[in-house]
Amino acid sequence: MKPVAAVAERMHFIDGQFVDSVRQFPKTSPVDGGIVAMVHEAGRAQVDAAVRAGRAALRGAWGRSTVTARAALLHRIADGIERRFDDFLAAEVADTGKPVALARRLDIPRGAANFRIFADILRAAPMDSHFLDTADGRGALNYAYRKPLGVVGIISPWNLPLLLLTWKVAPALACGNAVVVKPSEETPSTATLLAEVMRDVGVPPGVFNLVHGFGPDSAGEFITTHPDVDGITFTGESATGSAIMKAVAPTVKPVSFELGGKNPALVFADADFDGAVAGVAQSVFENCGQVCLCTERVYVERPIFDRFVTALKAKAEALQLGLPQEVGTTMGPLISRGHRDKVLSYFALARAEGATVVTGGRVPSFGDARDQGAWIEPTIWTGLSEQARCVKEEVFGPVCHVAPFDTEDEAIALANDTRYGLAAAVWTRDISRGHRVAQAMGCGLAWVNCWFLRDLRTPFGGARLSGIGREGGMHSLNFYSEPTNVCVKL
Ligand code: NAD
Ligand code: 6OD
To answer: Using one digit for the tens of pLDDT, what is the confidence trace for 331-389?
Structure first.
């Protein structure tokens, strides 16, 4: 299929050059189904070339670069993103259909902030040193320093494309690695603009390589199975994480996995009611429910249950499903028709499993081009059994199930009755209970009276089906480098 005028072309970036492929695929808009970009699909040879370029960069000047130089480079990358803020904004919105206001507040600023924070963390990072007593009384000095992992494969999803890609690229480059990056096939655009920034601010050829394509039998698999890729960092579905784990096993690569969730919110009767309703509504519906941290299970203390469901319903019904650039738009479409089919299958399943549909549950009808897009109504269910698949499985759409609880112990048990373990939010005015319940959550991140409030120095990641390892701050540096010890006999 030939690109048409005004349709962007998304090429690979290998060894400092944009390169094309014979095979291309269309990226369609979730807003109206139109083609927004033609994307080149990397074959095995192009992934090989990207890995070779990374290896050559590590053998060259990049392999001898200083912390000071890398930190300065990361700040220049952040400057480059900020200079082209509007280009990044337009590209992210075109690929995802998310409201411009959301991408302006969240996605693009975080794309730049990820580079700044890891530049600063790198400069401040301490390393071990230990003095060892020896029999001759003179001792030995041990000190550890960081070596880069090598060529790191970075595979990222479509929901917060620039934010989640740079969350991994920034610490990887900070530690002196070379990277081969594969963004989601649904969101190729901001990664391509990032490659332009890398070129323009003087990132040496081979340090940042970008290949486009799909997962199985495509660029994703070619990266994970590549014998000369030294580590894989992946964000996406738990099932994909499992497939990648199998793929990397023969070459024994370290992995960092940020996977799915089925995150609970616990609302106690003493919570600031309006604050809790607003916070839970945001945590269910932000980005059309397509944030790994989104709440899909809401547990509400029985005395306020009916009032809470009524208030949450009002919030859902007040959401404005509009074009991304329209003032007042508060919810966009799902990422694709394919993903909408999945979410709709859960809507049908919920009915079959006995849910009461409090609001939503359908595809909206607009009578305009949006009817060709991937829109869906914000939806609330009640009345499901805790064993229902809709309460157990991640939907990744604008939907939650709300259930009552009677005691704190019961709320904790309900929240933790899941194979996932990513995030939880606790809403209460009792600060002791806030700490107690947050610490009892079987997940990697717990918020009290807030949601998705992020300090990038803190550990981020999940337990069980939600992932392996932690990124953020020093945790990222620990994944993207090999601490190496030197022992000097004095
Ligand atoms: P996905 O797993 O379908 O795809 C993610 C990436 O993996 C894409 O680039 C895809 O092309 C690639 N991929 C797919 N199969 C592959 C394979 N076999 N080998 C190599 N690469 C492969 O996920 P998605 O649909 O893009 O994203 C949504 C999912 O991501 C949700 O489950 C969500 O919870 C999760 N997520 C988790 C976090 C987190 O930090 N824990 C953050 C965002 C999204
Ligand atoms: O804020 C972050 O650093 C982060 N990793 C967010 C993940 C969101 C998931 O969709």
So the answer is: 999 999 999 999 999 999 999 999 999 999 999 999 999 999 999 999 999 999 999 99
pLDDT score of 225: 98
Q: What is the pLDDT of residues 13-35, one digit of tens each?
A: 999 999 999 999 999 999 999 99
- Long-range pairs of 9-12 with CB within 8 A, sequence gap ≥ 24: 9/37, 9/38, 9/40, 10/37, 10/38, 10/39, 10/40, 10/188, 10/189, 10/192, 10/212, 11/40, 11/192, 11/212, 12/40, 12/42, 12/46, 12/50, 12/209, 12/210, 12/211, 12/212
471 is catalytic: no
Ligand nearest to the CA of 463: 1
Q: Is the CB of 463 under 6 A from ligand 1?
A: no
86: phi then psi, degrees, rounded to nearest 5: -70, -30
Q: Reduce the DSSP state of residue 170 to 3 states and report it.
A: helix
pLDDT number for residue 5: 41
317 part of the active site: no
Rounded distance from Cα 188 to ligand 1 centre (Å): 14
Distance between Cα 21 and ligand 2 center (Å): 31
Q: Which residues of the chain have pLDDT under 70?
A: 1-5
240, 290, 476: which to mutate for ligand 1, most atoms within 8 A of CB?
240
Cα 340 to Cα 63: distance, rounded to the nearest angstrom: 45
Of 175, 288, 292, 400, the active-site residue reads 292
| C-alpha 468 – ligand 1 centre gap (Å) | 14
What mean pLDDT value characterizes the chain?
Answer: 97
Please tell me the number of Cα atoms within 13 Å of 427 on its side-chain side: 27
Token pair 């499985």 is found at 393
302 Cα: distance to centroid of ligand 2 (angstroms): 32
Check: CATH 3.40.309.10 for 263-455? yes
If one residue of 163, 450, 466, 471 were mutated to test the ligand 2 pocket, choosing by the most ligand atoms within 8 A of its CB, it would be 163
Report domain extents, the chain.
8-259+465-489, 263-455
Task: State the fold for domain 8-259+465-489.
Answer: Aldehyde Dehydrogenase; Chain A, domain 1 (3.40.605)
